[in-house]
Amino acid sequence: MMDLQLLKTFLTVAAGLSFRKAAETLNYAPSTVTAQIKALEEDLGIPLFDRLGRRVLLTEHGQRLLHHARRMVDLEAETRRILLDGEASVELAVRISESLGIHCLPWVLPRFRGRSPATRLNLTTHSQHGLVRDLRHGVTDLALLLGEPFSAAGLHVDVLHRERLVVIVPPESPLAIRQTVHPADLEGVPLILTRHVWSVRRLIEQALSEAHVGIEGLVECSSVEIVKRCVMAGQGISVVPSFTVQEEVRQKRLASLDWAGEPLVAPVLLVRHEERSLSPAAAAFIDLLQAFFGEGRASESST
Q1: In whole angstroms, what is the distance from residue 166 CA to residue 154 CA?
Q2: Mean pLDDT value across residues 157-177
């Protein structure tokens, strides 16, 4: 029978494709990590990693082992939780868009604590970089993102909600008195876009092209907060999720307009491993997200 500790070391090396990083994560000496991987390879009779100088890559056998190793480690953890009657500290790792976190977590967190008081919740606001790898390797349990749906082997992607996008302009802009903005209104106006609206970028560019309007001084930025500040400073206009500017619109620091024509929306995505069983904590967190985004609470997040 395979040693679970060796499998855990294997998964840690595979997650970062680095023996050194695995040693730091596990608080082992590098030689211990090397010895454990060698012992696992000898036990299985197959190489799991290719060592190419300082680079480490999974072999075909190593890639095949990943899923089964994670299932075995998950099963051990689940067994411990069952035997301890749920009293053990459980960790749930969630990667979430910062803007979505600001929007939904004040409502979700207190209810989640009520359902899973012993769970240690680890929230990270990284971008999608490395997300597929982290979900496959169990570094991340769930991800909540705002953007274009995607597909990846082994992952399940649900669209929880379609968030309305609005055009924002500074309050002193001539456009601020309008309720809607047409493509022709953007002639000569700098446009600032975030990754949250890249899913509708094609629609925006098509509408501008049909109106014979060229994009002036396009700026792409990953931060909604930076985009809002730039628009307030009169550096251009933007398209953002409506919930991200509710406070600024109320305070009249920004004006919000609807896009004329086909409505612009950005999907809210819940991503998880499709074959990994959900822990009670993960199931509770998902249930609360579905309640928030599926029953109208997304527009009443302060309640």
Answers
A1: 34
A2: 91
